[in-house]
Amino acid sequence: MNWIEIFGHIGALLSSLTFVPQVIRAWKTKRVGDLSLNMMVIVFVSTIIWLIYGFALQLWPVILANIIISLLSVTLIYFKLTFTR
């Protein structure tokens, strides 16, 4: 693995972690009123598009980051739909 690939994996890891604090906070507080459902759906759709791109070019940092981000996005969407009621 060369230094470019290492940077790619580090960037993918950091990008993947961006939603973790929000998921944890939403889970603990059961409050999601300030979260935008539209934004979360856009993020989810964009990760699916990035996944298609990553698989087509076999770019593992892109694939791994977007799998994690899509799972976290789906979790937030679920929380938004469940905790709002």
- The average pLDDT is 93
Terminal CA distance reads 48 Å
Order of helices and strands: HHHH
CA-atom Rg in angstroms: 14 Å
Specify the CATH class.
Answer: Mainly Alpha
Q: What would you say the CATH architecture is?
A: Up-down Bundle
Uncertain runs: none
Taken from the alpha-carbon principal axes, the silhouette is elongated
- The tally of helices reads 4
Outline the biggest β-sheet: none
Number of domains: 1
Instruction: Name the beta content range.
Output: under 5%
Tell me the structural class. mainly alpha
Number of strands: 0
Annotated CATH topology: Monooxygenase
What proportion of the residues is helical, as a percent range? over 70%
Description:
This protein has 85 residues and is an all-alpha fold. The chain has a single domain, classed as Monooxygenase. It has helices at 3-17, 20-29, 37-57, 60-83. α1 runs parallel beside α4, α2 (20-29) packs parallel to α4 and α3 (37-57) runs antiparallel to α4. The longest helix has 24 residues, at 60-83. The chain is elongated, with a radius of gyration of 14 Å. The relative contact order is 0.19.
